[in-house]
Amino acid sequence: MPLIEVRHANSYDPTQRERIIAALTAAYSEASGAPAEKVWVILDEVQRDSWGAGGASLQARDAGGTK
Amino acid sequence: MPLIEVRHANSYDPTQRERIIAALTAAYSEASGAPAEKVWVILDEVQRDSWGAGGASLQARDAGGTK
Amino acid sequence: MPLIEVRHANSYDPTQRERIIAALTAAYSEASGAPAEKVWVILDEVQRDSWGAGGASLQARDAGGTK
Amino acid sequence: MPLIEVRHANSYDPTQRERIIAALTAAYSEASGAPAEKVWVILDEVQRDSWGAGGASLQARDAGGTK
Amino acid sequence: MPLIEVRHANSYDPTQRERIIAALTAAYSEASGAPAEKVWVILDEVQRDSWGAGGASLQARDAGGTK
Amino acid sequence: MPLIEVRHANSYDPTQRERIIAALTAAYSEASGAPAEKVWVILDEVQRDSWGAGGASLQARDAGGTK
């Protein structure tokens, strides 16, 4: 009964979410031997002004060319 | 100072949230001996299109009978 | 399929762990209406030198009377 | 590549978020020796009706003087 | 810069860990379009006496046939 | 009552842990205005064979020059 939790800053539409859930479940099941029907996946979108990398938010980096 | 964090896919109204917080705090305190006033609870609702089980989102399972 | 995750600084023996799992599951199920057999609980013990409160670890507070 | 995740019940505007990200990154880098450009920060705001302390939500405590 | 975190109750040897990391990274990258070199994976093994399902730990279920 | 949780792959001795807890608490308190005595910090060390970046564990990257 593994739990896979993803934090991501990009937005995904429902079709992409479905595809990501299916892909992670299949990949984990195949690599670990755990039955796919026992795998849980949680997708957790983080807003770009709430995700910092290197001391600045992704939003600030998008806007300002911090990199 | 234990921290209890709940991820759930069902929506709860404020009354239910209050009841869940009280119930988990009391149960934990009684079972562990930790003082109730030191227990923190965080409720974190996950949207049904962002929670996968067995390779499909709960939303898709609700809609389509994946199972 | 709610997931209840507990971070705690006290150590619990297997009997206490079993009791905490049972108590949280029953409390959550009763308060939320979710079926108990779908509830997951994860207990995650944090070492006292790795848990800070008010700027000092619990270990330092135990030793030094920071409070 | 450390990851610093903050759960907080107060709301912060974009300027405050930027300041918190910068401050935590600098503090961690200086205290640990890890390069600042490798530090990630995630800010996760929890609603006051979803954060319990001592068996009641912060919202209920705000309203009712539980403390 | 997505972060994929896995909680699992089975033990994996280093070869399996490497395979799981590679598989999840590739699957996520392909399904989401995120570049693989930006994907982080954290594997977090939970002891069987610390993971509850349906009110009993996995260890108790292993031993006792709770199911 | 903010909670700051750090996942890190480097090992820190007790003195470093104490310093990191103090530094993060002070930085957060100053940047956010939250009282330092209400800030919690949890340090969570992840083994290098359990932390993947770009599809390989840090351990494999250390050993093999994946980068």
UniProtKB/TrEMBL annotation, chains A, B, C, D, E, F:
Molecular functions (GO terms): isomerase activity
Top-rank taxon: Bacteria
Keywords: Isomerase
Segments forming domain 4-oxalocrotonate tautomerase-like: 2-61
Keyword flag Isomerase: yes
Family: Belongs to the 4-oxalocrotonate tautomerase family.
Protein name: 4-oxalocrotonate tautomerase
